[in-house]
Specification:
Number of helices: 16
Number of strands: 11
Largest sheet: 11 strands, mixed
CATH architecture: Alpha-Beta Complex
Distance between the termini: 15 Å
Number of domains: 1
Structural class: alpha/beta
Order of helices and strands: HHEHEHEHEHEEHHEHEHHHHEHHEEH
Strand content: 5-15%
CATH topology: Amidase signature (AS) enzymes
Length: 499
């Protein structure tokens, strides 16, 4: 596949100049998917006919001279947790196998209104529960940097599609790091917007107080362009924030941090972090200093309890949310031979429909919410959440943004942590606090770890509804790294083995 236009911004400019058509771009990406996705398995469903029809419509609108979005005609991969009318939406689970929603999620509605071409639905950990995309009922996704390694999770399919050049843009969702952690290990960019900054209507819920859809791409500017499309108030989402969206595109283009104070979170580093990850992180800090930023160390003492609190809050909410999958209204139905009652059918359906990790979290959450244990577990976890939020509020009184490595390590091998849930959960130790506080978080690549030559992620955290700050810092760091490397940001294109 020849990438004349490697970024969405370049594609947008080429479309505007009529150097290329959306149909041609879409065909090129569909061909790339056909070429490599047998190895990568980023997609669960490719909507070839629908994508070409959307591309043709974008080309016709542009030819007619009508008002058009900057991303009109640019292809995109959609995480399979967002409803798209008439398109299979499985959440990576057998429970929803072949379910075709009768409506669009708000994110999809906004994408369609902007003329973005949706190529298909990407693989994910079942119901977004996982850090490796190994929990998908339809098989794991492989990291294009090394097909024996994980692409992160739960949104590994979206991140892998970007890294493999199967799409220039993608949508992910982030409950405890499911956008940022895959971005880190695939050398791509991923943003979790402020909670409530992007509508959750039509996003199949895992943990309602933590889930947040967000943009993914290969550059900070592309991510900002997509953020601008999907963000904004939605009256159909009771948690949606009714205020103006920050100008993230202008912030990404600004590429200037002179006078900014950047706080390094003491608790998100050190022991347990791979040496190469820490090395690249420190080098990135030096680049920001060279560009005029002031670096200070910040302590957020309650972050050490974030992982434990998260794994009480998220499973508790999952226990409630996943109760709707009862075999009666939608999804699969098992064991209904006319001789057994509804409870037996529900039991058989849930036994076969849910995978081991989903069952583990439902059981954990149900126990935490049970009579006599609610205050000791769920109630206490919510108190910890408040303390984490206060840590952030105090920190942002003295700094503009906070930073840390996105993940403790680079991508690990498929199967390496499958039998050790705690080891798997620890992958999200640096990302979970962001979700607990509802603030914005970004991961962008800051180089390759010397031990294994795999991507390292740099995390930027910004206050509520000030997402533009992380785009400003991210855009500056990205530009400096591109200048240093003498080439665009990390590309796994030449590393992808095509059988």
């Amino acid at each position: 596949m020849t990438h004349i236009y490697s970024t969405a911004a370049q594609m947008s400019a080429a479309l505007a100049a009529k150097e290329v058509s959306s149909v041609d771009l879409t065909k090129e990406h569909l061909a790339r998917i056909a070429q490599v996705d047998t190895d990568v398995h980023a997609f669960l469903y490719v909507d070839k006919e629908g994508a070409l029809a959307q591309a043709e419509a974008a080309d016709k609108l542009r030819a007619a001279g009508g008002a058009i979005s900057p991303l009109a005609g640019v292809p995109l991969a959609l995480k399979d947790v967002l409803a798209q009318k008439g398109i299979p939406t499985t959440c990576g689970s057998k429970m929803l196998e072949n379910w075709r929603p009768p409506y669009d999620s708000t994110v999809v509605t906004k994408l369609k209104a902007a003329g973005v071409v949706i190529l298909g639905k990407t693989n994910m950990d079942e119901f977004a529960m996982g850090s490796s995309t190994e929990n998908s009922a339809y098989g794991p996704t492989h990291n294009p940097w090394d097909l024996d390694r994980i692409p992160g999770g739960s949104g590994g399919g979206s991140a892998a599609a970007l890294a493999a050049f199967e799409a220039p843009l993608a949508i992910g969702t982030d409950t405890g790091g499911s956008i940022r952690q895959p971005a880190a290990v695939t050398g791509t960019v991923g943003v979790k917007p402020t909670y409530g900054g992007v509508s959750r209507y039509g996003l199949v819920a895992f943990s309602s107080s933590l889930d947040q859809a967000g943009p993914c791409a290969r550059t900070v500017l592309d991510t900002a362009l997509l953020h601008e499309v999907i963000a904004g108030y939605d009256e159909r989402d009771s948690t949606s924030i009714n205020q103006a969206v920050p100008d993230v595109v202008a912030a990404a283009k600004r590429q200037e941090v002179k006078g900014m104070k950047i706080g390094v979170v003491k608790e998100l580093g050190g022991d347990g972090f791979q040496a190469g990850v820490s090395q690249r992180f420190q080098e990135a800090l030096e680049i920001l200093v060279a560009n005029g930023a002031e670096i200070v160390e910040v302590s957020c003492p309650n972050f050490e309890y974030a992982l434990a609190a998260y794994y009480l809050i998220a499973p508790s909410e999952a226990s409630s949310n996943l109760a709707r999958f009862d075999s009666m209204r939608y999804g699969i139905r098992v064991g209904d031979d006319g001789t057994v009652g509804a409870e037996e059918v529900m039991r058989a359906t849930r036994h076969l429909g849910f995978g081991p990790e989903v069952k583990r979290r439902i059981i954990l959450g149900t126990y935490a919410l049970s009579s006599g244990y609610y205050d000791a577990y769920y109630g206490s976890a919510q108190k910890v959440r408040t303390l984490i939020k206060r840590d952030y509020e105090k920190a942002f009184e003295s700094v503009d943004v906070l930073v840390s490595p996105t993940c403790p390590t680079t991508a690990f091998k498929i199967g390496e942590k499958s039998d050790d849930p705690l080891a798997m959960y620890l992958n999200d130790i640096a990302t979970i606090p962001v979700n607990m506080a509802g603030i914005g978080g970004m991961s962008l690549p800051c180089g390759l770890a010397p031990e294994d030559n795999l991507p390292v992620g740099f995390q930027i955290m910004s206050p509520v509804m000030q997402d533009d700050r992380m785009y400003r810092v991210g855009g500056t760091l990205e530009a400096a790294l591109v200048s240093k490397w003498g080439q665009p940001l990390l590309s796994a294109e030449t590393k992808l083995a095509v059988k």
